[in-house]
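Duplicate of #3305? Posting structure anyway:
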């Protein structure tokens, strides 16, 4: 009896998240990736030469903001319940 019940439950498996959740996860991942791409670079080939581009507003303000927005999208995607009826 228990074996039959377990097989029936195995047939009814479904994904934890719905399509809407995965869409928001991809958007959040894109924001995070873009933030890390914008943060990269700015180094100098010669260690004796200072490159002021390391303190550019893009690396100090924009890139971390995009990463935090991306993490916000990720949290929203995890907490979103697409099956909830209004």
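Output from current build:
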């Amino acid at each position: 009896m228990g074996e039959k019940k377990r097989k029936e439950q195995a047939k009814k498996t479904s994904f934890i998240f719905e399509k809407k959740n995965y869409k928001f996860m991809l958007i959040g991942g894109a924001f995070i990736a873009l933030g890390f791409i914008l943060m990269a670079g700015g180094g100098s080939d010669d260690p004796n030469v200072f490159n002021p581009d390391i303190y550019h507003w893009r690396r100090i303000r924009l890139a971390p903001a995009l990463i935090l927005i991306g993490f916000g999208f990720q949290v929203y995607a995890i907490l979103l319940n697409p099956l909830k009826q209004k």
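Confirmed duplicate; merging threads. The chain is about 65% helix and 0% strand. Residues 35 and 63 are 4 Å apart (CA to CA).
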